Amino acid sequence: MLNEVFAGFPGWTGPAMAVGLAVAAAWIVARVLTRLLRLALHRLAGERVEGEIGEVLRVPLRVAFLTTFLLLAAVLMFPALELAGQPTTLGLDREALTRWFFGSGLRIVLIVVLSWLLVRIVGSIVSRLERDISRGTSPDALERSRRVRTLGNLIYNTVGIVFGAAALMMVLRELRVDIVPLLTGAGILGLAVGFGAQSLVKDVISGFFLILENQVRVGDVANINGTGGAVEAITLRTITLRDLSGTVHVFPNGSIERLANLTKDFSFAVFDIGVAYKEDTDQVFDVMRRVGEDLRADPILQTSILEPLELLGVEAFADSAVVIKARFKTLPLKQWAVAREFRRRLKKAFDEAGIEIPFPQVSLHVCDDGPLAGRSLGERMTDE
């Protein structure tokens, strides 16, 4: 048919025009189908196109468009070439290919898009939940925020693995691949791994109870096996700390013997204040109380301090100082900022009150008996 239309033109004109028409038709149909799918999903979700759901749908809709376009172009290529008088010699059955496209092909596209969409929706829900909970400033809100962040990462990773594996099995089944041997082999392999990788199983079980019992969360400051740092990530297998110098420490959950959470529910800023033996401890207590009340009235730190300064009393008689112990009850992660500011203000208050903060020193007593009595220390050393 196209040969008659392009009679007198070079021989490649008809096939080229047929291929171009097939590609253009495939592009138009794929674009229309993708637009209809996008509008249907937005209508179903009850969101505007510019809303958050639009960001979630962007990548899967592009994948759906590209897949539909390629499949339509492959299907339409054969009748287009036949219309141009160029019989196909690829050995493919056009009718069978068309039936496969409108059957298994569309199901594969739907499986891939829905699996991707479900994973992104779960991630979007988790992110929105984290943002909503993080808006509060109360201790309960901060605790819930850290717990949701920890569980959110675990849920997102788990959902991605489960949906990805399920989508892969369904796609293989649509491609007429027998998945029974694959499932059987996976089961045998899992059993072998379970026996051979006992440490891995131990890590996973320990990580599960670590998260279930809410022992530590992302954002906490913890000390694990003698190493302290901020918790950056928690998975079923490992927990990651970053210390003050920026070094990252990764601990398998099964190897954790001692875990100290420094920021669970609340924290204490503890002080050991040393003063000279000559100072009146009652006066020292009064100065410390006054500095504590001033600190609680500070507009920046007042929300971080939960209770007034607690003076625990005289802790010890050290070599050159009387040690007084006190503490502030603070929000989690705020104890260090409160402690630094309290020490700064206390030093200034001690200086104003004339209270001495001693430093290590040695008192030398010289005996007055003997032939060197009554002479200075320098004269004695010279004579000796």
How are the strands of the largest sheet arranged? 4-3-2-1-5
Proportion of strand residues: 5-15%
Distance between the termini: 128 Å
Count of separate DSSP helical elements: 10
Largest sheet: number of strands, sense, barrel closure: 5 strands, antiparallel
Short description:
By secondary structure, the chain is of the alpha+beta class. 57% of the residues lie in helices and 13% in strands.
Please describe what this structure looks like.
Mean pLDDT is 75; it is low at 5-11 and 46-53. The protein has three domains: 2-174, no CATH class; 182-261, SH3 type barrels (Roll); 267-353, 2-Layer Sandwich (Alpha-Beta Plaits), CATH 3.30.70. The strands form two sheets. A five-stranded antiparallel sheet has the order 4-3-2-1-5. The chain is elongated, with a radius of gyration of 37 Å. It is built from ten helices and eight strands. By secondary structure, the protein is of the alpha+beta class. The relative contact order is 0.06. α4 (94-133) packs antiparallel against α5 (139-174).
